[in-house]
Fold each of these.
Amino acid sequence: MSDLWGLGDDGFEEVQRPTPLGAGGGSAHGAIPEALLAGLNPPQREAVEHRGPALLIVAGAGSGKTRVLTHRVAGLLATREAWPSQILAITFTNKAAAEMRERVEQLVGEESRGMWIRTFHSACVRILRREAEEFGFKDSFTIYDSGDVRALLKRLIKERGADITGLTPGGVAARISKAKNELHDVDSWARTASLDNPLDAAFLEIWREYDRELRRANAFDFDDLISQTVFLLRAFPRVAAQYRKRFRHILVDEYQDTNAAQYALIRELTQPVSRGELPDLRDDLPGASLTVVGDSDQSIYAFRGADIRNITDFERDFPGARVIMLEQNYRSTQNILSAANAVIGNNFDRRAKNLWTDSGDGAKIVGFTGYSGHDEAQFVADEIVELTGGGMAYSDIAVFYRTNAQTRALEEVLIRTAIPYRVIGGTKFYERAEIKDAMAYLVTVANPADALSLRRIMNVPKRGIGPATEAALQAFADEHDITLRDAMRRVDEIALGPKVAGAIKDLAALLDEFSARPDADPGEVLRELMSRSGYTDQLRRSPDPQDAARLENVEELIAVTREFRRQNPGGTLIDFLTETSLVAAADELDDSGGQVSLMTLHTAKGLEFEAVFITGVEEDLLPHRMSANEPGGPAEERRLFYVGITRARQRLHLSLAMTRAQFGEVNPAVPSRYLEEIPADLIDWRTPPTTMRASAQPRALGRWRDEPREQFVTGYRTPPPLPKGPKKEFANTITEVRDNSGLELAAGDRIRHKDFGEGTVQAVTGLDKKRVAEVRFDTAGRKRLLVKIAPIEKL
DNA sequence: TGTCCACCAGTTTTT
DNA sequence: CTGGTGGACA
């Protein structure tokens, strides 16, 4: 997908070509080739063939919506109803966009070039860059991620002493984000707020200052990308008319996740264009035809402003809309679907929908209750060994959890068991300090107005430019109404020591040198910046072994920029920065690499796996404690569980623990209310949740204590005895210095394991650091152990 | 200015 | 248990 970012060749000029047909044409075009319709079921086929102003495809999980969407686009192209450049397809992730483009290309080949298949954010960036000059921005603007936003807010809050009022960067960021997603700006919000409230007044002031800083830095935050595009289209009718005329067919994926700003964007783009709005337009043009695909049962982003009413009210919003339901599922077994249907059926207030499949019941859902999170993780690892032993690939297996904190126990056990895995999302590469430093250098070069990035690198590596010096520079900048960067160039006019002044001048000269070459190869720019700034040297000289790893990361980033340039010949620094700002967790997932995928339930949406583990199915985790107070919280959490269940094709595992460790404290855990909602006969409990923990019963869950459901009684078996020996030290077992690489092991050897007790080695495979022992323990069963780090001794 | 240490608070999901 | 912050000292 080399043109994912649409560098060049976006076919905008094709607007000038004759328009094949307006939207809602209907019959004048040729028939859709049978090849594009073959193999579709009746509603799918109708969804591909229907023509009209608006179409809502209610696509249940696994009902083939991507197929429908891509065939629909291919149909528009194949019949010449639309030029590629007249199609705008919007997704939420780059991965979804890439997949769609690829599949359309497979269907119609080169024909598909020039389509806009992009995420909301990248489409908006595209429009904003193109029109930047029009409304007073420079097209070199950069994008602040949530870390940048927090850093900036932190400074602003502190500067005004607003921290004592209780305003936190996180809280303010969330409020601003929410407001922007509802298309408020500072002034419109101020009108609705009661400014008698000192907290609101302080918030408003911070927000105003924050926006001003962004403007000065020539930067947008994430929410601005959408809302500013909407404002742009509203404020400049001629610009709006251009895009309305250009995009004749607009398709939106995951429509249930759109927020108010995104909805407004769609509305703007689907307005008709009247004669006279554009000089070369001879006739009135109807609004673009709109196709949206979504499933309100999979709406899990309300916390981010997604408004489920956008999809439930679609028919009212777009008169003449057609609604098509896709309910046949091609992904999962009937057992999995029955569980999913039963769970989601507890959400009232939804359009009834019933997923079904004709592919058979499949295996039962496997349930497990562990003593602790580690015990649960061990179950996951054991099952994975079992599954892969039966021929399943690691990459066909995924483990889901509600919160990122849950990965620790899982990772620890997976490492110990030598199961290759990958954490999707989580602590990301781009969040590491050294990567942020390196990126800040690039941002500073690309966007000299950005003071935030400049501040970050000003004294990294150490140049003797401390807070006092920085403040002096800033004061000079404010006084002369210039940027911080300009102030650095005029350092001679500021009374500073000669050493400091020299350091500042050197840095400014280095940055300016590259700023002057915006089209240079980003990889080269980064390599030179890192070496000439002394950044790499500083890491290389450091005695701290961690710095060696940091150096590697910086080199990895250089490799990434090189790869970017290779994929996008001529791609500029700004292009690279835009790409990296807009990557989402799910984008990291490339199907290559035989690894188990670990991710949050949110990240899992839109993906599918042969075998799925949903862990931590407990109260306070799923549903999460924080959701309890929010309106619609429990229902949204239920949808989240539903999304998780429906990711599984063949095998589904639900697990929980009786105790959960958080902050080093161990707390009792209670089975999730959602477990009760799954019919008992669908689950095969290896170890059922017990009702023995009277102390752990929360008030709201009387049922678990008072009238335990049959499923837990019939499935009941005595849990295995706790491993003996000294109390468990799970935490940090991995980082503990242990190196068994010298240990000779062979089949038949007897060993003792810290947790599992004594056992017999069955086989040893792998080499050196990757040596894996398969051991049959006397009480704990069969386990795989990574010899190098296993807490074992030979007997 | 830089470094070290002790204390503190905050912990959901993320385009 | 983590990361961030602020103070004390070199």
Note: Residues 70 and 245 of chain A are 23 Å apart (CA to CA).
Amino acid sequence: MRFAPSPTGYLHLGGLRTALFDWLYARHTGGQFILRIEDTDQKRYNPESLQDLMEGLRWLGLHWDEGPDIGGPHAPYIQSQRQPIYQQYANWLVEHGKAYRCYTTEEELEELRARGLPYDRRHRNLTPEQRAAFEAEGRPFVIRFAAPLTGTTTVHDAIRGEITVENATIVDPVLLKSDGLPTYHLAVVVDDHLMEITHVLRGEEWIPSAPLHVLLFEAFGWSAPVFVHLPVILDPSGKGKMSKRKTVVDGREFSPFVRDYIRGGYLPDAMFNFLATMGWSFDPEREIFTREEAIERFDVADISPKATALPFSKLEWMNGVYIRQMDVVALKDAVAPFVAADLGLDVETLRRDPRLLALTPLIQERIKLLTEATALVDWAFLPAEKITYPDPTQLIGKKLTAAQSIEALEAARELIATVEPFEAATLEAAFRSRAEAMDIKLGSFLTPVRVAVTGKTVSPPLFESIHILGREETLKRLVNAIQALTAYAATAVERP
RNA sequence: GGCCCCAUCGUCUAGUGGACUAGGACUCAGCCCUUUCAAGGCUGCGACAGGGGUUCGAAUCCCCUUGGGGCUACCA
């Protein structure tokens, strides 16, 4: 098995899914997972993308057994470093009459294209004299495959069955470019043979050229690997192949790039699970499964041939599921970098902060993405002065007046100051009985307190939050809130 | 245009001639639980693209139509 991306841009989800299936099948069969870099197009090569690619694969936990950075029995694994090999095999084909030098110029090709015509095989049967003349001229040439003019070629696709095409539709593709580098077709066939690749997993956009590859394997006298053409991944809208840019659907922005999901607070395990269900199904009644379970059941023959539009809302849901499954300490550590970055804190200090550890179980079932943590816990790391009440009406409890809300805050202040021991359970008991005594709903009582303490209408469970914050800090915020609401009430009376 | 691939709820999917009044998941709606928000539980909405065959019997097999997608480079 090999994953052979071309480093021309950031790794996208389609590529990751291909790599995932490759990896799964390699692990399932006990085979090798090889990373090979197809950089034979010098014009589009982008060195940054190689780094991005490896980061993405490692993030998902897809470690390769052979590759450019770790070597292996078939090194090198970067095609631009294998140039002599391809030239050697291209020449072998020429010597055996299975390929030929073509001296057609760019302009001549352009002329054909302008008339909507394919290459006309004009140099396929050059006389020795004609060839000598071109050589004497010093004309640059490419090596083209002398494809059969008649008959058909059948490709066996592991998920679609047999695909047969007329050989005449294969018009002598270029194998070796005039710059001496191979095209994809030559490189892939030579490398897959030399690297002893048994299964080729790649996007279905390669189906049309698969017959050519079969023909090349035959020309060399090699046996072809099993072809597995993975369905394309569509835009979230379901219209068209997923673009290489961010797209907006229903007002939400979706990125095709893996890096954006790493930064976006997604968990590798969730992405793994999610991507594994795109075109493959673990079990009709189960969506969540482990890597080990997937490895055990995965088979390329079970992959669906249908193109898929990624259901991103399901990815989010799944990420939430994985977050809830996490060990608290692991989640704390995972969330720390995001919170630290948002709040301008030092990550390591934050990791050791007992408040974050105490807060983590409270937010665990409230976030779907790691990036959502900050909004839920920032108040705990901010001084009282930073908790402001730009909209004092938020301090007013449901079905309460401003005056009643102030009373509630005063009552809270008294309870916070006196409750012993200062713990969530005792605080809750005290607030419950006080609410009853004041004849208001607990929820109405708590809303002003919640906003006073956290500055927001939505927060983790209040009593635990107050306990984590501490008595003194909580008291300060209650005082500030009472002040803010009192000021508001005064102006509100003046101009109703 | 030519060649090729594909076709089950909005989306991801199960289904390989009878167990299908088509199952699961996400989303959405309602209810329950509840200190906010979540999470959780329950209920609901929702699909075999259309038409012909084959067969005692088709979501499942064949053909056509339609629709979607891909390829059509000295890019991968």
Note: The longest strand of chain A covers residues 152-157.
